[in-house]
Fold these 2 entries.
Entry 1:
Amino acid sequence: MNSNISQGSAIKLNKASLSRLGNNVRVPNYDRHQITNGIVHIGVGGFHRAHQALYLDNYFHQNPGSKWGICGVGLLEFDKRMRDALNSQDRLYTLVEKSPAGDRARVIGAITEYLFAPDNRQAVIDTLADPKCRIVTLTITEGGYYYIEGSGEFDANHPTIQYDLQHPDEPIGVYGFLTAALDRRRQQGIAPFTVLSCDNLQGNGNIARKMLTAFAQMQNPELGRWVAEQVAFPNCMVDRITPATTPADIKMVAEQFNINDAFPVVAEPFLQWVVEDNFCAGRPDWESVGVQMTSDVHPYEMMKIRLLNASHLLIGYLGSLAGYTYVHEVMADSLIRQAVDNLMAEVTPTLQPVPGIDLDNYKKTLIERFANPKIRDQLPRLCLNSSAKMPKFVLGSVRDALHQGGAIDYMSLTVAAWFRYLNGLDDQGNAIAIDDPIGGTLTQLARTSGSDPKPLLNLTEIFGDLSQSAPFVDTVTNHLRRLYEFGAKETLTRF
């Protein structure tokens, strides 16, 4: 990650060097050797390190000798970079919170072990099966759940799923590892762990429950019943804008804080975590570090997904078409900023009342967060894996608005802007890289059908039966025709 960047005289981050870091860097003041790993986290990326691991780091400062340390797990070849960076730094890393008021750095020590599954699959199963493991948290992206959007069913035919069913002792996918460990615990009379999804899915715990139980049932009906009866799957809502780490971030950490960190993470100051209090094997006292525990997460996650995440998609597509690179640049464009405001206003009637939240203030805060120039959040991150995001972030609002007889203009504009984006060229004719599991299919359909959205709307695995809604199809058609004819900015002017 940082092979081409000179770190100069910056101090290489590891356990031995913590005492040499400057006073402008907060470091762990608890004994990491006194912590046992009660949590296994699958999918250690920027977001986990800026969010859940930070909450635990705060917890350890209050509760030294805790049993809630984190063992990180990477399942994908892509995770080699994280393995190499963390293991070379005693699992320490730098978190920098950036705002117009200034940058604050701290070293996080909550991850005390990291396992790269392709190196040793059995070690991962052993760790998950160990009675010390009480919670398994997940950030495996929206597409990592093998959930068929159109039907809501488990994608049992996916090659990863089929492989893991046929190779239960050498799994490659998340459900294969979880069921291998749970089956061992069941056979040895060890209570199961809680599975806590921290991904941007409405009802993420419910989805994790349905998908994992379906997989376990296919592998062993008795195991499937045990999982359904014994394992807890809390829903939760997570929120913190965390851009992908860039070489510039590595250089900034070296120059500003004198730390040579192979994989730091940068985030905004805002932080929120709302968790359903439903655990089968205990949990940390998260309330003591600002986590909101509740009996019903649904209104909070609906608010966040339908306002923040849907707005991110509209910003990503319109901004990319208009030739922008960063989110804050897009938000400085009054036309697109107004479109984001209007999208939020349109979505709001589909939301449930959210206890303790002033929605007008929440939306105002979102606009301020998007406009933060220090974050330098890049548009491709927002548009990544859109085929998994669109149904979860936008289409539920469309269905509810249609049912209520409400407006769908800006939700439909978001869909139309995605279709125009999928053509792979911005309004100036520059290439746009489409990063999506089914990107080839989507781009081919977008290019052959042009301003006619019907071939894309007929992808039932994404849109379900929405292609049968004349108001929705007509509104998307009108927007898409304008986007092709006039471009993003002129379309918004005419809108």
Entry 2:
Amino acid sequence: MSAALSAGYCGESTIEAFLQRVGKEYPQPRVLEGRRKLWLRDDLDAAIAPGVPGDIAEDL
């Protein structure tokens, strides 16, 4: 996800607020290609709810 989508996904009010927390509460982007930075949903999920297992639907 882009920074804008990641910010919304994490419940941040602005992209800037999300980016200020990257490397602290949120992970670094997984894809770094020039100016392009992308975060994986699984990485963000782990940061948002640590200790919660992955997709429960996978276990069914």
